[in-house]
C-alpha cells in the first residue's frame, strides 16, 4: 500500500470512527473519594453560593427613587461681627427647598454695608505699589476684588496698594470665626422622605413605613438601636455615625453622605424590604495635606438706603452639604435565570469525571492497567475473533 493511501485511510478512520462511552467500574477507594469529594464541592458551591448567597435564581431590578428633605431647629448668635440674631430654617437652609442634597449654614464671614465705590485692594505681592506707575488702569485679576483704577493709594499707614473699583469695603476672610457661629446647628433635625419603585416588579415603598403614624413622627428621632425606622435624623447624630465631630466640621464646612440602601428580596422577605441607613464623609479630608479644606460659597443680600443708594451685605457661607444617596436592587424568582444557572451547575457536574480520570491515570499504582482498559478499539477482525470464541465456549 502506498504512503498516501495509508494516510487517507487513517484520516477516514479519524473522521468516521464512532466513539461511544463504556462504563468502567474501578473498585478503588481513593478515586471513589476524589469523585465524591469534588461532587460535594460543586454541590456546596451551587447550593451555598449560587442559590443562597448570590440568589442567582432571581430576576433583578434597580431602584428608582425620589427624595425630599426638611430641616428644623433654632439658633441664636451674639457676636461682635453681627447684631444679636435669631436663626430658623428659612435663614440657614440654602436654598430653602431640599431634595437629594441640602446645605446647612454653620459658619460665616459677614461684610455689611458694601457699596459700589473705590477702595484700596487687599495687600499681596501683585497689588502693593510705590506710585501710580505700578498700577494699570482697567487691569483685573480673578483672584483680586475689583478693577484697578490706575492709582496707588494708602491701604494703611505703612502699606500702599492699587486702588480698585469694587464692592467696598472689601471682604477680609483671613479670620474665620472659631468655634463656628452656628454651633447650635448640631441639634437641628432633618426629615427625609424617600419613595422608591422597582418598576419591573411593580413594587413601591416609602421610608415612612406603614406602621408610622403622625404622632410617632412628631416625637421620634432616628437611633440605630432604639428607633431604626424613624426618618428624622439629628445632624450631630449623623456626623457621629460618620465618625466626624460636628463642631470641627462646622468651622470650614464639608460634604456628608446619607446613604439609603434598598436591597430587597421580594420572594421570602418582601415585608422586610425596608431602608438601611449609613453615613460617611464624602469630601476628602486628608490628614497630612490639608490644602483647601471644607466647603464654602458666597451670596449677598441687597438693600437700598433712604437716599436711593444700593448697598449689600456679603456673606461667605461655610456649612455642611448633606447628599442623600439612594441605591439598591430587588430580586424575585425568575424562570430564565433559574434554568441558566441549573444548566451551568449540570455542566460543572459533567466535568467531574475528568478530574477523577486524571487522578486514576496518573496517581494510582495500577494506572497502566486502568489506561489499557480505558479505551477499547473494536476492529472488524476483533468482532470475528470474539464470535468464534463465544461459539467455542458454547460447544464445550
Ligand atoms: N426636621 C424635622 N424635625 C422634626 N420633625 C419634623 C421635621 N420636619 C418635619 N417634621 C414633622 O414631621 C411631620 C411631617 O412633616 P411634613 O413636612 O410632611 O408636614 P408639615 O405639616 O408641613 O410640617 P411642618 O408644618 O411642621 O413643617 C410633621 O409633624 C412635622 O412637624
TrEMBL record:
Any one GO BP annotation for this protein: calcium ion transmembrane transport
Q: What is this entry's stated membrane topology?
A: Multi-pass membrane protein
What positions does the record give for glycosylation? 187
The keyword Membrane belongs to this UniProt entry's keyword annotation: yes
Check the record and name the InterPro entries matching this protein: P2X2_purnocptor, P2X_extracellular_dom_sf, P2X_purnocptor, P2X_receptor, P2X_RECEPTOR_CS
| Gene3D superfamilies (UniProt xref) | atp-gated p2x4 ion channel, atp-gated p2x4 ion channel domain
Q: Which keywords, in A-to-Z order, does the entry hold?
A: ATP-binding, Cell membrane, Disulfide bond, Glycoprotein, Ion channel, Ion transport, Ligand-gated ion channel, Membrane, Nucleotide-binding, Receptor, Transmembrane, Transmembrane helix, Transport
Under what name is this protein listed? P2X purinoceptor
Q: Which organism is it from?
A: Sphaeramia orbicularis (orbiculate cardinalfish)
Amino acid at each position: 500500500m502506498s504512503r498516501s493511501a495509508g494516510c487517507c485511510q487513517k484520516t477516514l478512520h479519524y473522521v468516521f470512527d464512532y466513539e461511544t462511552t463504556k462504563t468502567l467500574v474501578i473498585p478503588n477507594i481513593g478515586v471513589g473519594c476524589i469523585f465524591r469529594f469534588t461532587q460535594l464541592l460543586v454541590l456546596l458551591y451551587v447550593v451555598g453560593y449560587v442559590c443562597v448567597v448570590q440568589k442567582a435564581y432571581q430576576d433583578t431590578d434597580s431602584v428608582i427613587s425620589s427624595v425630599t428633605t426638611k430641616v428644623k431647629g433654632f439658633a441664636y448668635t451674639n457676636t461682635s461681627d453681627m447684631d444679636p440674631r435669631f436663626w430658623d430654617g428659612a435663614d440657614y437652609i440654602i436654598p430653602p427647598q431640599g431634595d437629594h442634597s441640602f446645605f446647612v449654614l454653620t459658619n460665616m464671614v459677614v461684610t455689611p454695608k458694601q457699596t459700589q465705590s473705590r477702595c484700596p485692594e487687599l495687600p499681596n505681592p501683585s497689588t502693593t505699589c510705590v506710585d501710580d506707575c505700578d498700577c494699570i488702569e482697567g487691569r483685573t485679576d480673578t483672584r483680586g476684588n475689583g478693577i484697578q483704577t490706575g492709582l496707588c493709594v494708602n491701604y494703611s499707614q505703612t502699606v500702599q496698594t492699587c486702588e480698585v473699583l469694587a464692592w467696598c469695603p472689601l471682604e477680609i476672610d483671613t479670620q474665620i470665626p472659631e468655634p463656628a457661629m452656628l454651633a447650635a446647628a448640631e441639634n437641628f433635625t432633618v426629615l427625609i422622605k424617600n419613595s422608591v419603585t422597582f418598576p419591573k416588579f411593580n413594587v413601591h415603598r416609602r421610608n415612612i413605613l406603614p406602621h408610622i403614624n403622625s404622632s410617632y413622627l412628631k416625637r421620634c428621632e432616628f437611633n440605630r438601636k432604639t428607633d431604626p425606622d424613624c426618618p428624622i435624623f439629628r445632624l450631630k447624630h449623623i456626623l457621629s455615625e460618620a465618625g466626624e465631630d460636628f463642631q470641627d466640621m462646622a468651622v470650614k464646612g464639608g460634604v456628608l453622605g446619607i446613604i439609603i440602601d434598598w436591597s430587597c428580596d421580594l420572594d421570602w422577605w418582601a415585608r422586610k424590604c425596608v431602608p438601611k441607613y449609613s453615613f460617611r464623609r464624602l469630601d476628602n479630608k486628608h490628614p497630612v495635606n490639608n490644602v483647601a479644606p471644607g466647603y464654602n460659597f458666597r451670596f449677598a443680600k441687597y438693600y437700598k438706603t433712604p437716599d436711593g443708594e444700593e448697598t449689600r451685605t456679603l456673606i461667605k457661607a461655610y456649612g455642611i452639604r448633606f447628599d442623600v444617596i439612594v441605591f439598591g436592587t430587588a430580586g424575585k424568582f425568575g424562570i430564565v435565570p433559574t434554568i441558566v444557572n441549573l444548566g451551568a451547575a449540570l455542566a460543572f457536574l459533567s466535568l467531574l469525571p475528568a478530574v477523577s480520570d486524571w487522578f486514576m491515570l496518573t496517581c494510582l499504582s495500577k494506572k497502566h492497567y486502568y489506561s489499557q482498559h480505558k479505551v477499547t478499539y473494536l476492529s472488524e477482525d476483533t468482532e470475528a475473533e470474539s464470535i468464534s470464541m463465544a461459539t467455542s465456549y458454547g460447544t464445550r
